[in-house]
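#lab-general

N.A. 3:47 PM
ok so I finally got the sequence cleaned up, no stray characters, all 182 residues accounted for. can someone with queue access submit it? mine expired

B.Y. 3:52 PM
send it over

N.A. 3:53 PM
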Amino acid sequence: MSEHKSWAQRQNSAVRLTLQIVGWVLVVLGIAALVLPGPGLLMLFAGLALLSQELTWAQRFVTPVKHAALRGASEGVQSWLRICGSLVGVAALVAVGLAWGLWRTAPDWWPLDDQWWLPGGWGTAGTLFASAAIALGLLIYSFRRFRGSPYVPYDVERPSPTGGDTATERENSPAGSATGRS
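B.Y. 4:20 PM
back already:
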């Protein structure tokens, strides 16, 4: 019986360590993707969500990063200009990926050795294609979820649909009195 507990404890430690490693990798990649192509806030949120299971300091950052990511996704689909800009970005990632994979000879103006022209080949092109697919998927998700109804965090007081004071309406509503808020 004690051997079984020991194995279970080792397995639990391995899972915890794996989740922390994955969390830190996502945080580092998310920070990098804030300035590079990729879903930076999404990866940062996912990494912090994993780390917050074990590290109390990470819990403080999960909600603000989540709100920033959802706010950014919402703002990105509120105008057709931003949507078209995002689609141009996706097309640019695919175009650069194709160029990276197909154009293997260095041009005459390239000052370095030919081996340093577009290093990585189709492997790098594949990561650019993956970034384009993720960006397109996030754009479609954001369009379906937020287009026409911008994101407002739940901890922010939302305006009432009738235009009145929300606190007063809540107190005077039957639901408000039933929940003991009167």
